[in-house]
Specification:
Helix content: 40-55%
Oligomer: single chain
Number of strands: 13
Radius of gyration: 19 Å
Number of helices: 12
Structural class: alpha/beta
CATH topology of the largest domain: D-Maltodextrin-Binding Protein, domain 2
CATH class of the largest domain: Alpha Beta
CATH superfamily of the largest domain: Periplasmic binding protein-like II
Shape: globular
Number of domains: 2
Distance between the termini: 16 Å
Order of helices and strands: HHEHEHEHEEEEHHEHEHEEEHEHH
């Protein structure tokens, strides 16, 4: 089933200066992880597949295995319990590399805990899309029809299952906390789509990658769950690296990710990205400016807006 998120999430409520202090004290710890067998580079992934090791971790293990073979570096992969937990892992010295959503990356980058490392490429682009989806029997044909309906959203730090759907609704003059019939904080894209499939909610926010994955797996049916709105293109969820990882290690990683689709020991079917979707390759030619554009899209999704939605979710 799905769960509510705690209110408020720890890393939202903590003081910025305290986080920076924690990062500073942990920087030496992260720097000693050099990718040797005894000190592998610690990789933490946001829980994009409902938080399961069997989903997200298996999507990325073949890629890191290939990079390990090309560089001689060792990796230890794990999946964080939440988006916020992955940010904290990077900022408290418990991780050297992370896979984030764009919003979570911006949070860590602004705290000085993460720099861009690599990003997936599909059809020549490094973009993906968020969407708002509804049950076909809900009477929802446009975003204005969301008023009074039961809404599901994912992790509060998720770009495409929370922040962008909320921004899309706010742009239409709809306050999710005030103008919907109820709010369910489902915790993940998969849980949002599951709640729709079960008829527990009328409408929800998720990424198009997650929607397509659920369709292909038979978890939802296009005859029961339809697309209501699609976002503008978003920068693809990036891999990021701790700034204190040695520059020579970063350079080796960038070179390997640029060539990962050609490396021995990996097949095209194993080059995967967000939601387990097959991608063509990875690139280290990534732009902080394009990531910053996501922040501009989310100016209306303030801390007060988030807290009001969490309060509405906890009141159900």
């Amino acid at each position: 089933m799905y769960r509510k998120l705690p209110t408020p999430l720890k890393f939202i409520s903590v003081c910025l200066c305290a986080m920076l202090t924690a990062f500073a004290s942990a920087s030496a710890l992260s720097a000693v992880n050099d990718g040797s067998a005894d000190r592998p580079l610690r990789v933490v992934l946001v829980p994009a597949d409902g938080g399961t090791e069997d989903g997200t971790r298996k999507d990325f293990q073949p890629i890191f295995n290939a990079v390990a073979g090309a560089t001689g570096l060792n990796f230890n992969l794990r999946v964080g319990q939440s988006y916020g937990a992955v940010v904290e892992a990077m900022c408290n010295g418990a991780a050297d590399i992370a896979w984030f959503g764009p919003v979570s990356y911006l949070q860590a980058h602004q705290l000085g805990c993460a720099d861009l490392l690599a990003m997936a490429v599909s059809d020549g682009q490094s973009v993906y899309y968020s969407g708002i989806f509804a049950r076909t029997d809900s009477g929802i044909d446009t975003l204005q029809d969301v008023r009074g309906k039961k809404l599901a959203l994912g992790d509060i730090n998720s770009t495409s299952s929370f922040n962008i759907p909320v921004a899309m609704l706010l742009r239409e003059g709809i306050d999710p906390a005030r103008d919907t019939g109820s709010v369910t904080m489902a915790g993940s894209h998969a849980n949002v789509l599951s709640a729709l499939a079960q008829g527990l909610v009328d409408v929800g926010g998720a990424s198009f990658d997650s929607y397509e994955k659920a369709l292909n797996a038979g978890a939802i049916s296009a005859s029961e769950v339809r697309i209501v709105a699609k976002s503008a293109p978003l920068p693809y969820p990036p891999l990021a690296i701790q700034p204190h990882v040695d520059a020579s290690i970063k350079a080796r990683l960038q070179d390997a990710f640029n060539r990962v689709h050609t490396l021995p020991g990996i097949t095209p079917e194993q080059i995967r990205g967000y939601g387990g979707k097959r991608v063509d390759r990875y690139t280290s030619e990534v732009s902080e400016e394009s990531m910053a554009e996501v922040g501009d899209m989310l100016n209306a999704v303030t801390r007060d807006v988030k807290q009001n939605i969490l309060a509405a979710g906890n009141a159900r």
